[in-house]
Amino acid sequence: MGFFEDAGKKISTTLNTTSSKAKDYTEKRKLETSIRSIEDSKKSYFTKIGEITYRANNAGEEMPDISDILDIIRDLDREIEEKKEQIQALNDRIVCPSCGKMMPKEAKFCPYCGAVPEEIQKAPNEETANAETKEGSAASDGAASSDPAKMKLCPSCGHTTDVANLFCPNCGEKISE
């Protein structure tokens, strides 16, 4: 009976890892597509600025105010940076071999199963493993989240962590719901 239980656990862990990686891969592709779309919008605003400048110059008129357009471009730049940070957060994860879920590589304990650091192995790098992926950014150690409603404190060490975490990534203590 022990053999089948071990095999079942290994299969479950493998499925969790594969599912987590597929979710992260999809999330990263969505973010990259969104960045390309935003960059295309920026190009259209730059083209608009060029047209406005050309027409004003050609007509011998004073350059019209384009500060609204420049503000929009700055907002788009901020959106791009936020999405790049989200991609980086997805890349800064490792696989917990105990439960197969993706977790922040700086966590001292797996926030899902409480595995200790010596049990945690680094996941293959995406560039070298050709499209390796990781779990979605919603379940992090909480450091990246700025929404207090999505955070909770570890009763043992006081570390702020994501509400989805069952274990503190700092001390490994089980966190009550």
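Next protein, fold it too.
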Amino acid sequence: MLNFINENDFSEVDSYKETAHGDINWEYTINGTTHSGSIYEGLTRKDSDGNPIDVWHALLAKEQSGEIYIQRLTQENRDSIAQQEQVDQFKASRQQLLDSAIVTTSSDNQYDADEQSISRMANAILAARRRGVRDIKWSLADTPTGVMTDVTLADLEEAHELAVENMASIWSI
């Protein structure tokens, strides 16, 4: 196991690669088993005498002297990673809007309007129509979980329509 305490631990590593956050990931294979980890600024270890070893600075010194090679990110890599992080952040914020969505019908009932709730509404509407039911028990967004409220099929259909429209408006952002 590499602890990066001994000088030769650094040379045992097969590859060093810089991450988007500036850390250095490492990998080495011994007896068919691949081991990996990360070295980051501030990482220290203690030698057998209890003295601290600054692994980060030792790594950089070995790179500087040419003893090891660290595959560094290019500016193109950094730009691509930053762009992907922006896209991921945008998608997450848009999903959060949808996950917390609530719609209010003309009868002032508030319904959860996330994707799962939209599906549940559609299923309940189809089942009610097949059975010819006009009144449905539903857990509204502004009541505690498990508390069922009597709603009309028409109200649930309106909520479903509003929820689908809301989802479409969120996805078109």
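About the second fold: The mean pLDDT is 94.
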